[in-house]
Amino acid sequence: MNLTPLIQSFVLHFGEMGSRWGINRTVGQMYALLFVSEKPLNADEMAEALGFSRSNVSMGLKELESWRLVKLQHFPGDRREYYSTPEDVWAIFKTLADERKKREVEPTLSMLREALMETPANEAERHAQARMGQMHDLIDLTTSWFSDIQKLDVETLKKLMTLGAQVQKFLEFKQKLSFPRVSEKE
Amino acid sequence: MNLTPLIQSFVLHFGEMGSRWGINRTVGQMYALLFVSEKPLNADEMAEALGFSRSNVSMGLKELESWRLVKLQHFPGDRREYYSTPEDVWAIFKTLADERKKREVEPTLSMLREALMETPANEAERHAQARMGQMHDLIDLTTSWFSDIQKLDVETLKKLMTLGAQVQKFLEFKQKLSFPRVSEKE
DNA sequence: TTGAATTTTCAGTAATTTGTGAAATTTGAT
DNA sequence: ATCAAATTTCACAAATTACTGAAAATTCAA
Questions:
Q1: From the CA of A49, how many Å to the C1' of C11?
Q2: A156: which of A56, A152, B42, B132 fits an S-S bond (Cβ 3.0–4.6 Å)?
Q3: Which among B174, B173, B159 is positioned nearest to A178, based on CA atoms?
Q4: pTM score, two decimals?
């Protein structure tokens, strides 16, 4: 791996983290390399920089494309394909969240909903369904909220986050508007 | 696996999902089994229900304990250890988030901060640092916001989520308070 | 069309991760 | 202290996943 120590440590860390999140280590490294690269890279450059076989890079890029995490482009007079990552880190984050939602959250919600349709055969199943219901509601609420939030433009999102737990005050305020003049209890 | 089809499909799905998130499939299944179980289970019961070896269950439980995802308890006159999951799904979610933050997010932020301290040796490194800075800020903002939000009690949290993107209105409102009487342009 | 450049596929191997059974350790009742 | 019950450890085997090189397929310029 002929990268400067600075970039190398980033690439290696990212590969390591990737593997903890169910992403192949070398794919994580490829992504990290593209992320910090000044200019788009072709597969040979990546294979060379990371010390992987050309075919491994090809498969890794396919994987990254399926996650919509890389952009493909061409340069005039050069047949090779050049890859890069979007510049906007928030956009990247959103893409990743969307894709995980589609691949993991939605199938899980479907499975839970189907299980909840069944008539429980005994007390154990009745209890299991109650638990699945709790899990379903948590996932459902969390992810719909998340996609709501995602629709905000980045600047609004940043403001919201910077505000942090202050939002609580807003909720209290809203509460008062809905039930004016009610005593302070609760 | 001598479980009813309803419970079995939940357990299997959960194992599958676990493995996509970097969690050993059998550990995922063990967790799922405990999650839907009416009463705490001991290791032998789990091994029996899931068809795993006793030693595999032992290691899986250690793993789950390290994530603080299971509760251990004893019953009078029984030396064996019984495991269960917390009843409150939101509490479970928070534990998981805390643990992932500690294990993955914080080390990543440290790595990024260290990289950002270095003096860039050339233009490529300068650019890489800029990118790492962007990533650092996103992770930092997102996670501090998340831990702020997490501090809210569950009821408030639910209200907030139910509100969804309406929060935007709050932000606009706040904006007006900070700069009253300024013309409407952005 | 031909053929060189480029990318993809895939069968086989390598590496890693997971699971097991037997042995060792710990626990607690007597 | 002793011993059986319970749990943990760990070396090995099994299973899964990742990587490679060679061959096949695709692309595009001439």
A1: 27
A2: A152
A3: B159
A4: 0.90
